[in-house]
Specification:
A: mainly beta, 6-stranded mixed sheet, B: 116 residues, mainly beta, globular
């Protein structure tokens, strides 16, 4: 059974800092790894999707990496902004199933 | 723009009543849709996988008679919470993908269910 863990559970940083969110998964037989953000009381916004054959994806200030062999993915946020404050979820995509991580609640302080 | 539409976004119902939540894929056909629930301060937990034209596959611990799933077409899946109780109050989210593997899943905006 796939288990996905995210560290840290919560993170508070001053505006402008670069930060890294970590995601680990126990079963490396995944099809993809996806990062989402969730604002309070809202649905999910897809940020980045890394296919199993890829090692990283970039979108603006976001960069996600994937190391299947070690069961890890990281989400790097450059020059953080208060608008980045949200909960970030990683999700390991298997066959017909996606397993979500426990989430990292990020607060960027102006 | 949104490719998966979920309705309603918020619903309040009385204990004992049933509530239906719809999940529609707007610009693609989804043979498979997924239903998740999220309790406060917890991550999303898969409830069931909805397959068009066949019975849904439920995760362990999810009551199939309580959470009825119907996937009657390639663009619509519904989740009906029957005889709702306060402990069913949660955030329900659906997702859909174009193919069963290796394609990004698109998520609805979720439904906040409150049972009084």
């Amino acid at each position: 059974k796939q288990e996905v863990t995210q560290i840290p559970a919560a993170l508070s940083v001053p505006e402008g800092e670069n930060l890294v969110l970590n995601c680990s998964f126990t079963d490396s037989a995944i099809y993809n790894l996806q990062w989402f953000r969730q604002d309070p009381g809202k649905g999910l916004t897809s940020l980045l999707l890394i296919q199993s054959s890829q090692r990283e994806q970039t979108s603006g200030r976001l960069n996600a990496s994937l190391d299947k062999s070690s069961g890890r993915s990281t989400l790097y946020i450059a020059a953080s902004q208060p608008g980045d404050s949200a909960t970030y979820l990683c999700a390991a995509g298997g066959y017909q199933k996606v397993t979500f991580g426990t989430g990292t609640k990020l607060q960027v302080i102006p | 723009g949104a490719v998966v539409s979920q309705h309603p976004s918020r619903v309040i119902c009385k204990s004992g009543t049933s509530v239906k939540i719809e999940c529609r894929s707007l610009d693609f056909q989804a043979t498979t849709m997924f239903w998740y629930r999220q309790f406060p301060k917890q991550s999303l937990m898969l409830m069931a996988t909805s397959n068009e034209g066949s019975k849904a596959t439920y995760e362990q611990g999810v009551e199939k008679d309580k959470f009825l799933i119907n996937h009657a077409s390639l663009t619509l899946s519904t989740l009906t919470v029957t005889s709702a109780h306060p402990e069913d109050s949660s955030f329900y989210i659906c997702s859909a993908g174009r193919t069963v593997d290796n394609s990004p899943l698109h998520f609805g905006n979720g439904t906040r269910l409150t049972v009084t």
